[in-house]
């Protein structure tokens, strides 16, 4: 057997390629709706945060604590939105690898949001502490 055939066989038998969600129109519709909802949430959150947004963990000049719009429901709605879209993609693909990718994305966002929250606690000690008490990080009423 050729090396290429062995590699191809290893890929096909790879546990990450194993389908865990059966394909079908219902799965496709749910995934599409989740993806669209995530996109709408991301756009809404980005508009709400305005000039306070940054791709890196930093404070802008005149930084404000935004608690309106989607920030009224979760402290990190852009991360929530991207996670919803990643989950929708994993659901649509239906394979273990998609859900592993989702878990890795979740872990990376959790690390970054902890860095952001430490910075915000230093900059807005009283206000951010109160905000953290009443609003969950990523999923309303859950986490």
Account of the protein in words:
- With 143 residues, this protein is mostly helical.
- 63% of the residues lie in helices and 0% in strands.
- It has a single domain, classed as Four Helix Bundle (Hemerythrin (Met), subunit A) (Up-down Bundle), CATH 1.20.120.
- The protein has helices at residues 3-12, 25-49, 77-93, 96-123, 125-134.
- Helix 2 (25-49) packs antiparallel against helix 3 (77-93), helix 3 (77-93) packs antiparallel against helix 4 (96-123) and helix 4 (96-123) runs antiparallel to helix 5 (125-134).
- The chain is elongated, with a radius of gyration of 19 Å.
Helix-strand layout with pairing:
Blueprint: H1 3-12, H2 25-49, H3 77-93, H4 96-123, H5 125-134
Distinctive features:
5 helices, 143 residues
In brief, what are we looking at here?
This protein is mainly α.
Question: What is the domain total for the residues?
Answer: 1
Structural class: mainly alpha
**Tally of helical segments:** 5
What letter string, H or E per element, gives the SSE order?
A: HHHHH
Overall pLDDT: 92
Q: Helical percent range?
A: 55-70%
Low-confidence segments: none
Largest sheet descriptor: none
Number of strands: 0
Q: What does the oligomeric state look like here?
A: single chain
CATH architecture: Up-down Bundle
- Output the CATH topology: Four Helix Bundle (Hemerythrin (Met), subunit A)
Q: What's the Cα radius of gyration? A: 19 Å
Shape category: elongated
Strand portion, in percent? under 5%
């Amino acid at each position: 057997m050729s090396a290429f055939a062995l590699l191809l066989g290893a890929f096909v038998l790879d546990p990450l390629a194993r389908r865990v969600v059966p394909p079908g129109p219902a799965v496709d519709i749910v995934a599409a709706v989740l993806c669209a909802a995530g996109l709408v949430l991301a756009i809404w959150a980005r508009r709400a945060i305005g000039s306070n947004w940054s791709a890196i963990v930093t404070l802008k000049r005149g930084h404000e604590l935004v608690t309106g719009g989607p920030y009224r429901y979760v402290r990190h709605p852009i991360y929530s939105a991207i996670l919803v879209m990643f989950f929708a993609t994993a659901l649509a693909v239906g394979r273990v690898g998609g859900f592993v990718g989702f878990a890795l994305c979740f872990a990376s966002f959790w690390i970054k949001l902890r860095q952001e929250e430490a910075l915000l606690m230093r900059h807005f000690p009283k206000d951010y502490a109160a905000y953290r008490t009443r609003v969950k990080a990523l999923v309303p009423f859950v986490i």
